[in-house]
From TrEMBL:
Name this polypeptide is given: Diaminopimelate decarboxylase
Keywords from the UniProt entry: Amino-acid biosynthesis, Decarboxylase, Lyase, Lysine biosynthesis, Pyridoxal phosphate
NCBIfam families assigned to the protein according to its UniProt record, in alphabetical order: lysA
PROSITE patterns: ODR_DC_2_1
Active site (catalytic residues): 352 (proton donor)
Domain of life: Bacteria
GO terms of molecular function: diaminopimelate decarboxylase activity; pyridoxal phosphate binding
Function: Specifically catalyzes the decarboxylation of meso-diaminopimelate (meso-DAP) to L-lysine.
Species whose genome carries this gene: Euzebya pacifica
Gene, per the UniProt record: lysA
Residue sites binding substrate per the record: 284, 321, 325, 353, 382
Residues the record lists as binding pyridoxal 5'-phosphate: 244, 281-284, 382
EC number of this enzyme: 4.1.1.20
Subunit structure: Homodimer.
Pathway: Amino-acid biosynthesis; L-lysine biosynthesis via DAP pathway; L-lysine from DL-2,6-diaminopimelate: step 1/1
Amino acid sequence: MSAPLPFHLLPDNATVGDRGQLVIGGCDLLDLAEEFGTPLFVYDEDHLRARAREAVAAFGDHATYASKAFLCRAMARLVHEEGMSIDVATGGEMAVALAADVPAGRLHLHGNNKSGDELREAMAAGVGRIIVDSFDEMDRIEALVAAGSPAPRVLLRVTPGVKAETHEFVATGQDDSKFGFTVATGVALEAVRRAEASDAMDLVGIHCHIGSQVFEAESFAKALAVLATFTAPLDLPELVIGGGLGVPYVTGEQAPSISDWAAELTSAAASLGITATLGIEPGRAIAAAAAVTLYTVGTVKPLEGIRTYVAVDGGMSDNPRPVLYGSGYETFLPRAVEAERPQQVRVVGKHCESGDILVRDAQVPSDLAVGDVLATPVTGAYGHSMGSNYNKVLRPPVVFVRDGDARLVVRRETPEDLLRTDVG
């Protein structure tokens, strides 16, 4: 395959400059690489806002951003400004959202093993919903309320027994899961009865999440069918179907838009007689395609008769998805975004691991050379958020671009940052 990069994998506001270079949000990517260094995450701010508005247009106040996809204070403010609530899964995510001045009532606390401290802080702050995941968590909530904490509004997370067609590590709706109360065994109904009888919890609905990077709407419809039967006698006002809508990462992949997905969910719920207000929690569908990651090529190593390795200045520390899930990505040179890509190489990082692979079979222009800025698109979700300091690398900065302006929202780490928690 030698075709240019498919343009639909780039952010909404990507254009080609007068020298054939890629421009996003009015900003030349090569200029950004020079100003901020590499690796660098570049987000199209208007793309993010457009996807958030699309979710809110379909579900109003019940559109919630899954912040595990990507979170910083600027991102929290952005989705809040566009009308979304925010799903936080740890005390750390909650702290970032609150630091961005998002009202606690617009936060929903998730997690399969919330600590007593996390629950106490969330209840004291007045989070809008706690998504309860276990009977042990109910014990902790009841103890906190008995000690004076305000009783929270809760949803119960249930597992409907639907296995989404996705990687096993991100499939969560099957019976064999660490998440939620299982419907098929009767445990979910037992949890409902306990929550209804407890003065420590105001039960307002049921929550379900079948997995991540799901392309088939049929999987969500199957989950709704199970939930319709389960929730019918409960008469609860809210039903959250979670997130998980997939996005295309490589040539040939296609996925429904948020609007198409919403229409499928709404239609399926109506046909099943579901009267509860539906909610969704997109994360990847909001953030993934909004960003590209820029790297600098440091080494080109041809192994005759085997392959050519192209090593860049990032790696599994800024994008662990290829290592964890075998995820695929495209590659291109921002200096010539429309160029043919006839050469196949393996793009690797700088870490001391043979498995430190960013793109296993990458197509690149034949004139790729040391010093080139190389980019991977669709890196706005689960790259920066899953990043690490392995080999004590410094985590990359994040820039939001809009109308020709580049705004630094997360600075690059420094060696001093690495030593800040090292008390010797």
